[in-house]
Amino acid sequence: MLNLIRLTKAGFHIVRAGALGFVDVDEVPPVAARFVRFARLFEPRGLSDTERGRRLSARLHRLGPSYVKLGQFLATRADIVGNDAAEALSGLKDEMPPFPTEEAKAIIEINLGRKVEEIFTSFSEPVAAASIAQVHHATRLVDGEEREVAVKVLRPHVRGGFQRDLETFYAGARFLERLSAEGKRLKPVAVVQSLERTVLLEMDLRLEAAAYSELSENIIGETEFRVPAVDWAHTGRDVLTMEWINGIKLRNTAGIIEAGIDRQNLARIVVQSFLRHALRDGFFHADMHEGNLFVDREGRLVAVDLGIMGRIGPKERRFLAEVLYGFIKRDYLKIAKLHIEIGYVPPIHSAEDFAQALRAIGEPIHGQRASEISMARLLGLLFEVTALFNMQTRPELILLQKTMVVVEGVARRLDPDFDMWAAADPVVTEWISRHLGPVGRLEEAADSLREIGKFVEHLPDTLTRVESAVDRLAAFSAGGIKLDDQTVDRLADAGTHELFWTRWAVRLGGLALVVMAVASLWR
């Protein structure tokens, strides 16, 4: 009953915001369509999509941090809520009311075991407040010199509040799954489970500190992008202390212009940094909106708030690079074969049919000005088409697409004539040359040889186990089940015969792997 009351309250806020206007009733089951039409009788008339997005953000803020986080999370799942709603939800800003500074100090003292005055020479009121934590500006003595630091503190009782709201989210998700087959297909319970995992990671600030550390190691040598240094000695589960960034937020366009910073170059850095980290490292900042990005005095892009990070494996990196490269070169058959080869599209579909569908996406963009073509929109269309060919939802690709949408939006706000394709081309081409060229082939062959080495290394153990099994069988037959001499002889002969052919099969298999590894060098 309590969950029902909470759901009713949340539903009323969402309806009054006009959020159901994003729902295409022709795309939902009849029962759900009737519900949507009835609920929309209670929403204000004449709302534009922009106004719907603004009202939805305000209503979610009113419902509390858990609902803000739910909205931010659903912004990454355009496959669930639709592109229009996802775009509206991506506008949620982390501008929650702050909690008292004295509570923040108490949390710091519990986590670090010392009073705030013993650690910091100054400690400000909150300078930013988000759904899960807030940030204070502080100074501390380091080698007799005062250093500015940012101190991020988790909201008090946020874990308990989020756990309570999760029960409501699960109740609503189970209701949707029972409502219709379409509701079951969208897997709302799995969506809530994903949200739960994401937020649980965000609620341990030591993990965010680890993300800063890993990303900083990945970008050693880069001159255009950096992240703040973490003060590990003053970081705990609920407290993160790091370098203070004296820079201009990217949402402050006037400040960027006044500082004389090249906005076109800054837009290029934003896009190339994201693509480089995703393709080269498979580890990228998955929340790169203007509020989390600064430009410092040297013109470098500085990223903060690494609570949400994306990871993609070698297969996904190759997918992203070759898809972008294939559209640039208009090689639709290659893109189609790639989807089938790595298992994103079932082999029951022909590559030629899929290539025809891809051509319907790619051809309309050619002949247009590059600055008018949205790479993020193109990937969105690609995922729509792949759904027709039974491609299952890939969460890591959805997060990648969402981040690309945000990054592209940031770049175009900095430079309305920004050419996304020109910016992406050197990064994608470098990856293709590096990994699918001669050097990449050599590394692939080396990986194959390492696998062969592991196989050969374990070969004696495998043969020993086969021989041991034959010996145990003979001993068992002698001391346990009584077999006549002829049967024992036949079993021994069979074991010896099997061992002989096992050895030769292993040798031939190893030789075949070596040949395949060498052959891969000449592909």
Describe the structure.
The structure is a single chain. The chain is of the alpha+beta class and 523 residues long. It has four domains: 1-93, no CATH class; 95-244, no CATH class; 247-436, no CATH class; 439-520, no CATH class. It contains 22 helices and ten strands. The strands form three sheets. It has a four-stranded antiparallel beta sheet. The protein has a four-stranded mixed beta sheet with strand order 4-9-8-6. The protein has a two-stranded antiparallel sheet with strand order 7-10. A hairpin with a 2-residue loop joins strand 2 and strand 3. Helix 15 runs antiparallel to helix 16, helix 17 (351-362) packs antiparallel against helix 18 and helix 18 (375-388) packs antiparallel against helix 19 (395-414). The longest helix has 42 residues, at 438-479. Residues 439-445 and 517-523 have low confidence and may be disordered.
For the structure shown, list the relevant keywords.
523 residues, alpha+beta, 4 domains, 4-stranded antiparallel beta sheet, 4-stranded mixed beta sheet, 10 strands, 62% helix, 9% strand, globular, disordered C terminus
